[in-house]
TrEMBL record:
Residues 255-498 form the 7 transmembrane helices usually fused to an inactive transglutaminase domain. This is Inactive transglutaminase family protein. InterPro entries: 7TM_transglut, Transglut_i_TM. The chain crosses the membrane at residues 305-327, 339-366, 372-395, 402-422, 437-455, 467-487. Keywords: Membrane, Transmembrane, Transmembrane helix.
Length: 501
């Protein structure tokens, strides 16, 4: 029979597991290792204005996901106001409204932003060229300024750079000075660029500096080379490119703040930077799962804690499969060591090993007495289960009385599994002798300890909980191990006399 379908299934599971894990790491920036830190910016915008006693509507531009920054959470404080978030292809805005307000008003908007490594350029809609008209003599001055910069440029970017430099202090000519007496610098530069056939718009950005208060937005010029490629220019220095600490607050060419029903409006910004564990920083964005972003983070915290333990079981299963198929260690029960390893996680390894050995040893003594009663299997196993419960209760009370609180955690042992383990070892003792009991019991304990060490590793706990694609990778590895039909490592000792000869 062809093994091709088997290897295709294994390969598909491996590719899907690796692909989904890489997607979560690259797209959602979930870290590979626990304890990684991410820089978080907390920015607060305060809108101040004086209401006139009429209906009030306030529109404030909001930032969006962009190169180098991802929005984690947003909050507002606006007692008595209605609030809506509006979004179109050009910008995002918050709109407050109230039927009547009088006197000084303050509205608050705060956002938490994560600094990311994503340097992909944000997609922007290229603005259309505007029809530009000037009064005399500004039309002549504008034409001469454009012609001078045009002759020293080769493309929209170099033209923009030369045009801005012509308005600097050291290169400012009479035409530039004339235009600056009538127009503000940034809107003037945008008008000149549009007249020259260059698509451009004025945008507003916030320079992020830790601990700054009452900051204002700065104006920048967004110049488009074609429909997809664009760059920013500083309208005063002609520096090209977006600084790393610049957050584009309004990039659609609209007003940052619009207030109807009020006067003396302004918006100021305060900001604070701090570091936060990467897992906590991205947790809020993992709540909104999609098919490719499937995670446990959308569940309540109680269920998340439960699944954090459940998702470790495949790791223990992989350890058991490897030790039994490749190494050849014998265990009492197939996956009993995995459940014992889960108990070790709750009790700590030393306490768990002592408790396991005590329960099994005492249980074997009592089970040996029950064998003389010639009970049926169901009744005998039920009696063993009750015995195990009694032993665990007795050990817990005794450990508490002598001040060993760690002994209380012995209740995490799976009682049914322990009862069946005692039953199997007792039968094995009667059929094979104590040597085989020691071999399988010792193998079970060694396997449980190794599974515990693998499952309790902080890196493995982090990977299994945050990257569910790892479960598919583990499945493919188990299938490959299940296809192995060669010698176990412990069986190779049979060939030792051959090597000696």
């Amino acid at each position: 029979m062809s093994r091709l379908p088997f290897y295709l299934i294994v390969g598909l599971l491996m590719v899907l597991g690796i692909g989904t894990s890489l997607h979560r790491h690259i797209q959602m920036e979930v870290p590979w290792t626990p304890g990684e830190q991410r820089q978080i910016w907390e920015v607060e915008a305060i809108v101040d204005f004086s209401a006139l006693g009429d209906p009030v509507r306030v529109d404030l531009a909001l930032p969006s996901h962009q190169r180098g920054y991802r929005i984690l959470t947003e909050n507002t404080a606006s007692p008595g106001y209605g609030l809506s978030f509006l979004q179109d292809e050009r910008s995002r805005r918050a709109q407050w409204s109230i039927r009547s307000a009088t006197g000084s008003q303050q509205l608050y908007y705060s956002v938490r932003l994560q600094v990311t490594e994503d340097r992909r350029q944000q997609q922007m809609v290229r603005p259309p060229l505007r029809e530009i008209s000037w009064e005399r003599p500004y039309d002549t001055a504008a034409a001469q300024v454009i012609e001078r910069a045009w002759m020293r440029s080769a493309d929209p970017y170099t033209f923009t750079r030369e045009l801005i430099r012509d308005f600097s202090e050291d290169r400012q000519g009479e035409n530039a000075r004339l235009l600056l007496t009538q127009f503000e610098r940034t809107p003037l530069l945008v008008r000149l660029l549009n007249q020259a056939g260059v698509h451009a718009r004025e945008v507003s950005g916030l320079m992020l500096e830790d601990g700054r208060r009452r900051q204002s937005l700065t104006s920048w010029i967004m110049v488009f080379e074609d429909e997809q490629n664009w760059t920013l220019f500083n309208p005063r220095t002609a520096d090209q490119g977006q600084p790393d600490n610049l957050l584009l607050w309004e990039a659609g060419g609209r007003a940052v703040l619009e207030v109807q029903g009020g006067t003396n409006s302004r918006v100021t910004f305060s900001m604070l930077s701090r570091n936060q564990p990467a897992a906590a920083a991205v947790r809020s964005q993992l709540v909104d799962d999609t098919l490719l972003n499937f995670s446990i983070h959308s569940l309540p915290l109680e269920e998340q804690a439960l699944f954090q333990t459940i998702l470790l079981i495949p790791i223990g299963a992989l350890v058991v499969v490897f030790l039994r198929i490749i190494v050849g260690i014998k265990t009492s029960g197939t996956f009993m060591p995995v459940l014992i390893a889960l108990a070790f996680i709750q009790t700590t390894l030393p306490t768990g090993m002592i408790g396991f050995l005590l329960i099994v040893a005492v249980g074997l003594v009592i089970r040996n007495y029950l064998s003389y009663l010639n009970l049926l299997l169901v009744a005998r196993v039920s009696a063993v289960i009750i015995t195990v419960i009694a032993i665990i209760s007795l050990f817990s009370v005794l450990s508490y009385r002598v001040g060993l609180n760690a002994g209380l955690t012995i209740t995490f042992f799976p009682m049914i599994i322990l009862a069946w383990t005692i039953e199997r070892m007792s039968i094995l003792w009667e059929e094979e002798g104590p040597k085989e009991v020691l071999i399988q019991g010792g193998g079970s304990l060694i396997t449980a300890v190794l599974a515990y060490l693998a499952m309790n590793n902080p890196w493995i706990r982090h990977i299994t909980f945050n990257f569910l694609g790892v479960q598919l990778i583990i499945m493919s590895l188990i299938l490959l191990l299940g296809n192995y039909t060669g010698y176990r490592l412990l069986e190779l000792r049979r060939f030792k006399p051959v090597t000696e000869d």
